[in-house]
Amino acid sequence: MKVQDLHLFKQRALQWAGSFDTCCCLDSNDYPDAYGAFDFLIAAGIDKSITHHSGNAFEGLKSFYDEHQDWMFGLLSYDLKNEIEALNSANTDELGFPDLFFFIPQYLFVIANGEIKVLIGNKEDILDQINMLVLNDETVRIRPEITSRISKDAYIKTVKQLQQHILKGDLYEVNFCQEFFAHHASIDPLGIYRELNKISPTPFSGFFKIKDCYILSASPERFICKRQKRLISQPIKGTAKRSIDPIEDESIKVSLQQDEKERAENVMIVDLVRNDLTKSAVKGSVRVEELFGIYGFRQVYQMISTVSAELAAEVHIVDVLKNAFPMGSMTGAPKVKAMELIEQYESSKRGAYSGSFGYITPEGDFDFNVVIRSILYNAESRYLSFQVGGAITYAAVAELEYQECLLKAEAIMQTLGH
User: Fold this and answer.
1) In what residue span(s) does the Anthranilate synthase component I N-terminal domain sit (predicted)?
2) What number does CATH give the domain 6-138+147-415?
């Protein structure tokens, strides 16, 4: 079925889904994607679900998938690292998101090439309900008081401490993040997501509601996807602010492409992703499809590389996710040492941030984003959080890394009225 006004339909569909206790919306915002199967997906209501804390979460998900082999949507939180490696998480966590949550929806429809397909549920009932909705596009704005978990001086000091670890040979690169948060925040999650998606439309945008827990994501990054026997990962490392002047903007793009520091950061993570995919791949099939690709988004240019592999027949699809998790772009190299130092030097638990959410199909294909450029919100405790960070290498300049964090936070701050 085709509709005349897709934008209006998508807004109504999101409002309809948001009325359920649990829903997941994934929106490509019409970005061209050689590996994407759908432009827009909405899953609403729970038919069956699974929730796990870190420990045996991936085994639980494997059993859940094997039993049902149905469409499922879910969240993998960063702290699942603790069951993959001998790690722990003891930092502050005021959000209380599950480590792993997946659900089989009561209703599911997708949009691909401008056509709506209802995959679960009665087509006429769903579309009638959505088309009859009066769109509530008024966002109640009560500006939350945003506080940084660490000061600028503390951030710069920590970057220098991490560089000492690099100098000693402990690691080559580490992704260091900082949290911005608000207590007593009262927001309209759906309205805020709409505004965020308007200010910063991205190819892996999403709205995920798990009862009182919300992820409002403007993610530009794919963690990993599977298309038949092919695996694709697209790590991002390298960011530059865009200009409204076309000549300057093109110059910024070229400069990012040629920036040796950014290229060094990117290639380290590409090597790490290649290693992660090797665990799930046919021997000799891992290859770099694109290195140092420059892609333009509303506020920034990003350096994105693409790594692919052929899935080995004996590897379970859930093990593919486990073998690559957490994503190299949000950890560092070597991965385990980077995660140890992240725990030591960061001030708050990452939780859903720098985790991933996405879908698995009945045939075993999947697509998962990276939870960055995202607002996390617990409506019960009224705690709001977002984190930003970047790759720290020995060549990094702490002041510039701090400014890059603020650049990455810009769309969220603007959305929240700051």
Assistant:
1) 72-115
2) 3.60.120.10
